[in-house]
Amino acid sequence: MKVAILGKIHQDGLDYLKSQNVSITEINDFDDQNSLSKISDVEGIVIRTMHLGEEILSKCSKLKIVARHGVGYDNIDLDYLNKKKIALAITGQSNAVSVSEHVMTMMLALSKNIFASDKLTRSNGFEYKSDLQDFFELYEKNILILGFGRIGQALAKRCLGFEMEVLVYDPFIDNKKIISSGCKPVSKTQGFKIADYISIHLPLNKNTENLISDDEFKLFKKNLILINTARGGIVNESALYNALKSNKILGAGIDVFEQEPPTQNHKLFSLENIILTPHNSALTLECRKRMSLESCMNIINFINDKSSLNKNNIVNLSNLNF
Ligand SMILES: NC(=O)c1ccc[n+]([C@@H]2O[C@H](COP(=O)([O-])OP(=O)(O)OC[C@H]3O[C@@H](n4cnc5c(N)ncnc54)[C@H](O)[C@@H]3O)[C@@H](O)[C@H]2O)c1
Ligand 1 pocket, 234 CB below 6 A? Predict the structure, then answer.
C-alpha cells in the first residue's frame, strides 16, 4: 500500500505505517508540482493544514481515504470526496485535552495579568505591584462555551474544577447531556449578556462565520475575556480589534486567524490586552504523537481492518459504500 504524508507528522505515525509495510511519500513543499505528481497512485493521504482540493485529488485515481491530522476539515474538498466515495477521517480522540488546556492557559494568563506582572518584576518594578491593573479569579465566574463537542466538553470539566459556572450554547446537543455534565444550557443572547468568559468550540461554516461581530460586542460585559481556538473568521477580527482598543471588553486569546499566517503588520499585534498564538493549541508533544498515530491508524484500519476502525472518526460514513 502507498500512503502520502502532506506536511510533517510525528515519527510515531511513520513507524506504525512502516510496521504495516506501507510505502510512504512525504511531501512538505506544496508549491512543487513535481513532488505532488508523485502521489497519483496512493491509496491514503495523511494531511495537516494545506488546502486539498479537486486539482490534486482528481489526479489520485486509487485514493480511498484522506486522513486529517486533526479534527477540523475546512481545508479539504469534502464535496469532491463524497462524489467519489472517498472517506474523510479525523483524529477525534487526540485533540481535546491539549486545546482545552490551551484555553485554560489563556484565560488564566489574561485574568491574572501575568505578562504585565512578569515585565514589572524584570524591570525593577517589584515595589509597584499595587499599581498593576486589577486582576481576577476564575472562581464563580460565568464561562459561556459555544459548541459542546469533544473540546467544549473537555473544557467544561476543567472549568468545573476551577468552580466556575459553566454555561453552554449548542442547539445540536440534548440539554439533558449538558445538565448531567454539571453545566447550564443557555440561549446565545442570554449567554452573551452574562458571560465573564466566552470560549469558542464549533466549526467554521456559513452559519458560524462572523458569529461574533460588532452587534455581539455591544452585548458583552466590560470584563469579558474572549477566547477563540476554533477557527479564524468565527470572530470578526476588525470588530474584535475595535472592542479591545476601546476597552469594550477586557481581553482576548486568539489561536486562529481569518488569514493564516496573519500578515506581519496585523492590527491585533499592536494591542496589549490580547494573547496571540500561532494555531498551535493542539501541538503539544503528546497531542502530536496521538494525532500522528491516530491519522495513520485511520488509514490502515479503513483499508485493511474495518473491524478495528473507529467509525466515529469517519466524517462522511453515510456517503460511502461501507
Ligand atoms: N486551534 C486548533 O489547533 C484546533 C484543534 C482542534 C480543533 N479545532 C477546532 O475546534 C472546533 C471544535 O472541535 P471539536 O473537536 O470539539 O468539534 P466537535 O465536532 O466535537 O464539536 C463541535 C460542536 O459544535 C456544535 N455546533 C456546530 N454548529 C454550531 C452552532 N452554529 N452553534 C452552536 N454549536 C454548534 C456541534 O453541535 C458540536 O457539538 C473545530 O472548529 C475545530 O476545527 C482547533
Answer: no
